[in-house]
Design brief:
With 448 residues, the chain is of the alpha/beta class. Helix content is 28%, strand content 22%. It has eleven helices and 18 strands. Strands 4-5-6-7-8-9-10-11 form an eight-stranded parallel beta barrel, surrounded by four helices. Strands 12-13-14-17-18 form a five-stranded antiparallel beta sheet.
């Protein structure tokens, strides 16, 4: 086994050397400083440059503050350059007008730590967030407000929603945390998967979503606003995709807006009685490679670390353990090979950065299940290729530019120079690990 592992590593190093791409892949952890964020039809534009964004969801309310530095450090080591989090209304405003941004609820501190670890932040304010969180994040006292109807063109709901969202923005502005102020926050999400309920409210729902978009755009954030699963996102708001296979399922409708993925589900949350939820590292990597091959430029893993639903914070029947099969498990331990396989993927995609962000794309279908996507900039000798075999059962080979390439079933090979395979989504170099438990003496004594 030891010889096989070393052989794989040696082959990867040789491949990188052969194309002049062997670089120090250890991610720098210098504090990130942004001078602004905007977008064009290709990607987010951060500090005046197009960027690929590799993000992971970590909810500050689902881990203890003393865990945050280690979680963020491991996320950065895993190749991420951004962290995403929801904002939890019922945590921050448990009573009308009484706000709590301290201790485990210290959102600003969590964001500052992400910045110190060299990562941007995607702030998903909602304030309805779902997230398998109690009451979807909405405070229970909202139910006592006269004439209240949630998430529609309802004046009481809009009044309280705008008050809370403005409060969050004020808290971020205090510490200059938006990219427009030199901070790490590059995106601001309003509402959450509204398409799921839009038909219920009909015209009043349409009015509400336009109101929410305009309200968010008029806040003093200076960063782009996003709406997930909202293809008809109004005006300058960017629609984004949630799901397991956005590279196959998402159909962009705005050529002037980038293709962003706000939730790639790394497993699935569990309710009591469910078996452990599994999603293989290979399938997850395939979905990411597919998305970037098809013009996507931002991915966010939901979750990268799921953490713990403390007390009664989880939604009905949802287990205390949340997304334990994420790249970092409930306790912040590496979940291998998922963490390591994705880390290798992120580094490989960075080698493709120039082609993905500035190259001209072309597609070549080779039979029923095989596809080649190429990004080229001939004047700068830039060429990136993605060779895909979508058949879930049958391996195969394809000829690309005079060379035969073997493609395992359900896999994508990435060629940063259109010649050398640096990464295949089915070939895992990361070591496997297993988590074990030792029963505490107190527990043993209690069971005697």
């Amino acid at each position: 086994m030891r010889v096989v592992v070393y052989h794989k590593v040696a082959c990867l190093v040789a491949a990188l050397i052969s194309i002049g791409l062997l670089v120090n892949t250890a991610m720098a952890t210098e504090e990130v400083v942004a001078s602004g964020c905007s977008y064009d039809g290709r990607s987010l534009v951060i500090n005046g440059k197009r960027e690929l964004v590799f993000s992971g969801s970590i909810h500050y309310t689902r881990s203890q503050p003393d865990m945050w530095p280690d979680l963020l450090k491991k996320s950065r080591e895993g190749g991420l350059n951004a962290i995403s989090t929801y904002v939890f209304w019922n945590v921050h405003e448990p009573e009308p007008g009484k706000f709590d941004f301290s201790g485990q609820n210290d959102l600003a501190q969590f964001i500052k730590l992400a910045q110190k670890n060299g990562m941007f932040v995607i702030l998903r304010v909602g304030p309805f967030i779902q997230a398998e969180w109690n009451h979807g994040g909405l405070p229970y006292w909202l139910r006592e407000v006269p004439d209240m109807t949630f998430r529609t063109n309802n004046e009481p709901f809009k009044r309280h929603m705008e008050k809370f969202v403005s409060k969050v923005v004020d808290e971020m502005n205090k510490d200059k945390l938006f990219a427009s102020q030199g901070g790490p926050i590059i995106l601001f999400q309003i509402e959450n998967e509204y398409n799921n309920v839009a038909a219920t409210f009909k015209e009043e729902g349409t009015k509400y979503i336009h109101w929410a978009a305009n309200m968010a755009l008029n806040l003093s954030t200076g960063v782009p606003v996003i709406m997930c699963k909202q293809n008809d996102a109004p005006g300058a708001v960017i629609p984004t995709c949630n799901g397991r296979n956005c590279g196959d399922t998402y159909v962009p409708v705005h050529s002037a807006k980038p293709i962003l993925w706000t939730e790639n589900w790394t497993a699935q949350y569990r309710v009591f009685g469910d078996p452990p939820s599994q999603r293989s590292a290979e399938d997850l990597a395939f979905s990411v490679a597919r998305f970037f091959a098809r013009s996507g430029t931002m991915i966010n893993y939901y979750m990268y670390h799921g953490g713990t639903n403390y007390g009664r914070t989880g939604a009905a029947f949802v287990t205390t353990r949340y997304y334990d099969e994420a790249p970092l498990d409930e306790y912040g331990l590496y979940k291998e090979p998922k963490w390591g396989h994705l880390k290798d993927l992120h580094h490989t995609l960075r080698l493709c950065r120039k082609g993905l962000l500035w190259g001209k794309s072309s597609v070549h279908s080779i039979g029923k299940d095989f596809e080649v996507r190429v990004y080229e900039k001939p004047d700068e000798n830039i060429c990136v290729a993605f060779l895909a075999n979508a058949n879930p059962k049958v391996d195969g080979s394809i000829n690309f530019r005079g060379t035969s390439y073997y493609l395992p079933r359900h896999s994508i090979s990435i060629l940063p120079d259109c010649k050398t395979v640096v990464y295949n989504t089915q070939k895992v170099n990361a070591q496997h690990n297993a988590r074990t438990f030792i029963v505490a003496k107190q527990t043993q004594q209690g069971n005697e």
